[in-house]
Amino acid sequence: MKDKEIETILYAGMGILLALVLFNVFTVPQVSESFKAKLEEVKLASASPKVDLVLIDSSCKECVTASGTEANLKNSDLNILSETRLKADSAAAKELIVELGIKRLPAIVLKGEVERVNANGFEERGETLVFDKPTAPYEDTGSGKTVGKVVAIILEADECEVCADVSYFIDSLTENGVFVGEEKAVGYATDEGKELTTTYSIGKAPALLLSDDIDAYPLILDSLKSAGLQAESGYYIIESAPPYIDVTNGETKGLIDIIYLADESCENCYDVMVHKNILGRFAVAIGEEQTIDVSSTEGADLIQDYNIGKVPAIVLKGELSIYPSFESIWMQRLGTREEDGSYVFREMAALGKGIEFKELG
Questions:
Q1: Cα(46)–Cα(151) distance, integer angstroms
Q2: What does DSSP assign to residue 271?
Q3: Which of 33, 126, 148, 189 is 20 to 30 A removed from 284 (C-alpha atoms)?
Q4: Final residue before a domain boundary, out of 191, 211, 246
Q5: Which of 218, 246, 274 corresponds to the end of one domain?
Q6: pTM, to two decimals
Q7: Considering only CA atoms, which of 181, 80, 166, 177 is closest in space to residue 134?
Q8: Are 207 and 199 in contact (CB under 8 A)?
Q9: Is the residue at 208 inside a domain?
Q10: What is the pLDDT of residues 273-312, one digit of tens each?
């Protein structure tokens, strides 16, 4: 190889080596800095958000606390640097309430790295996250009133031993988180009771009046509206199911008397008492009960009066129209309504297959 060719190769090699050196000098530091920046981003993302927690208590004793939400925050991955508790009437609390538009108390405010916080129920307001949607009862910051403090008035009918006890409904409400702040009972026949029946057009006793503070409990409110109830003059009126007292005349309504028409000579016939269980499933209140055999004079009279052709059977006496759903089923599938207002069971097929009965000749 000639000296000139060797010299050319050496110069080319030196050029490549110089290029590699320059690449390392300028590129490696840039890669290193980029890697460091990415590493810092990863560290920041994995670090717990640093926040300051401010809890504003309500001034009402009955109101719920924010302890549940507070505990959830403390058990989360938040790095809570400080915790401040403010009374509702303090200057600091009033300032935050106005500044952040807080509507309900208790409330929780988070400050700090809130852009990295994902907390259910909190809203972004300025550079903070705010939770001000406690369940009832709570304090309304605009009026200072306690919302969700329900008044319950029981319109009693003590003389009706078979009427329902509507106080169980109040027990059910409290078990489902409703705060009943005031409860009282008033006899329907007293002056106060008469005023209530007139003011709220109540025709049945017992009854329950619930103040419209119940509107603060969405699930309960939905149930009331599903039942077709609307607040009138500040109260929802829940009248008793039968039996009840007609407040206009004091009469007990909804008791249905039953005559069981049996046939002792038919050993394989179905048990006529099954009808009592059926009536119970439809919440029909039973009054007087009487069992008559077809062989008796009374039995023969029933068979003749109502043209009964199959036994066992039953005859119902009373205002079955008070139970509109059951009366409709009766007329469509079970029996007939007679001229004297009695109801006679006739459709044996309604009791199911395999039922044994006797056809009268």
A1: 51
A2: P
A3: 189
A4: 246
A5: 246
A6: 0.75
A7: 177
A8: no
A9: yes
A10: 999 999 999 999 999 999 999 999 999 999 999 999 999 9
